Amino acid sequence: EINDSEGHPSSSHQTLKGTSKWAVSLENLLEDPEGVKRFREFLKKEFSEENVLFWLACEEFKKTQGKKQMQEKAKEIYMTFLSSKASSQVNVEGQSRLNETILETPHPLMFQKLQDQIFNLMKYDSYSRFLKSDIFLNHKKSEEQEENAPEAQTAAKRASRIYNT
């Protein structure tokens, strides 16, 4: 729990949800499955969905337990995103220095520098465009309509119960 200077619970972050929270930071967006879904939808239209997919794969990789599983996941990430023959190649510096020999001795942070590059690319490039996109703005609008709808629905339900009995 986060407290303010007087020790009271801070509500500034707790009350934000959905698009409001996504608009605060890319980190918030990437922590929300719905946010990731919408961001992917946007990146797909920009032909750069591989960036968020790589970032997500790296996050998943850090949680991988066991050398065998790490080797398999590291190879999958390498072949999908980093190899010169990768199907969804990401554009990162230092990629050429990575070769398949590093896949033999994987460690949780082996892709960290590359992941940071992709994060910064998304943060300073795609993310700001996403916040201005129809995908984001339409989702925000429908979210606001839902927030205002419950009172109207409950009143309508009460009215129908009264008149339909």
Automatic annotation (TrEMBL):
InterPro entries: RGS (IPR016137), RGS10/12/14-like (IPR046995), RGS10_RGS (IPR037879), RGS_sf (IPR036305), RGS_subdom1/3 (IPR024066), RGS_subdomain_2 (IPR044926). Keywords: GTPase activation. One of its GO terms (biological process) is regulation of G protein-coupled receptor signaling pathway. Residues 142-165 are annotated as: Disordered. Residues 25-136 form the RGS domain. It comes from the Eukaryota. Pfam families: RGS. This is Regulator of G-protein signaling 10. It comes from Pterocles gutturalis (yellow-throated sandgrouse).
